[in-house]
Specification:
Number of strands: 0
Largest sheet: none
Shape: globular
Protein name: Testis cDNA clone: QtsA-12359, similar to human TPR domain containing STI2 (STI2)
Pfam family, one: ARM_TT21_N
CATH class of one domain: Mainly Alpha
Organism: Macaca fascicularis
Order of helices and strands: HHHHHHHHHHHHHH
Structural class: mainly alpha
InterPro entries: ARM_TT21_N, TPR-like_helical_dom_sf, TTC21A/TTC21B
CATH architecture of one domain: Alpha Horseshoe
Radius of gyration: 18 Å
Length: about 260
């Protein structure tokens, strides 16, 4: 994938974080039509399968990509996670995977550390995710996506003082780009601060460049709800951009 496809990965990560795992699989599948055999998209498709409790299918999918350098670390972690969720746990397989994980860590790339950090964050291991992101930033301080991810990890922390620091990482990651995941994080930060006008301005930046990006439209609707702007809320809710698939993303509408 190229850097011009930030909305594709932003959508996958957003749906993963919000636990819309069927949307994760659908978005990854759409991406694979454009980027055939992309290992990162295959990983997230397998992750969506895994989180819907189709464990054996997920294990099979993860095994097929675990030796690709970009996803070797996250795939091996996900395989350990998957095996531990099996009804009959294969201790020997887990032991072999844990040994493999130690070996991979010795020569791992910055990209592999990034996706491992994403995976750890998505399964709720915030502190471990930070370790991997910080290690990655030591290898390559110019990796913008790592700053954005670190911002999201802090933003979703249950420690208020940590969440307040998130904006610094997000700004450092976005810089002068239109990074969709970074902008989504920035909008969420302003929402948490109840600064709805700033949040709306950021969301509008996303919709200008990626008008069909459903999570931004949902966030925009949530902003109008928070401001009690019922007319705008209804307009977005009934608009063509959100129908029909996007309505599943509204609060209380998950299926």
């Amino acid at each position: 994938m190229s850097s011009n496809d930030s909305s594709l990965m932003a959508g996958i990560i957003y749906y993963s974080q919000e636990k819309y795992f069927h949307h994760v699989q659908q978005t990854a599948a759409v991406g694979l039509e454009k980027f055939s055999n992309d290992p990162v998209l295959k990983f997230f498709k397998a992750y969506g399968v895994l989180k819907e409790e189709h464990i054996q299918d997920a294990i099979s999918d993860l095994e097929s990509i675990r030796h690709h350098p970009d996803v070797s670390l996250c795939s091996t972690m996900a395989l350990i996670y998957a095996h531990k969720r099996c009804e009959i746990i294969d201790r020997e397989a887990i032991q072999e995977l844990e040994y493999s994980l130690k070996e991979i860590r010795k020569t791992v790339s910055g990209t592999a550390l990034y996706y491992a950090g994403v995976f750890l964050w998505l399964i709720g291991h915030h502190d471990k995710a930070k370790e991997y992101i910080d290690r990655m930033l030591k290898i390559s301080r110019g990796f913008r996506e790592a700053y954005v991810l670190r911002g999201w990890v802090d933003l979703t922390s249950d420690k208020p003082h940590t969440a307040k620091k998130a904006i610094e990482y997000l700004e450092q990651g976005i810089q002068d780009t239109k990074d969709v995941l970074g902008l989504m994080g920035k909008a969420m930060y302003f929402m948490m601060q109840q600064n709805y006008s700033e949040a709306l301005e950021v969301v509008n930046q996303i919709t200008v460049t990626s008008g069909s990006f459903l999570p931004a439209l949902v966030l925009k609707m949530q902003l109008f709800l928070a401001r009690q702007d019922w007319e705008q809320t209804v307009e977005i809710g009934l608009g063509e951009e959100l129908a029909p698939a996007g309505r599943h993303l509204l609060p209380g509408q998950q299926v």
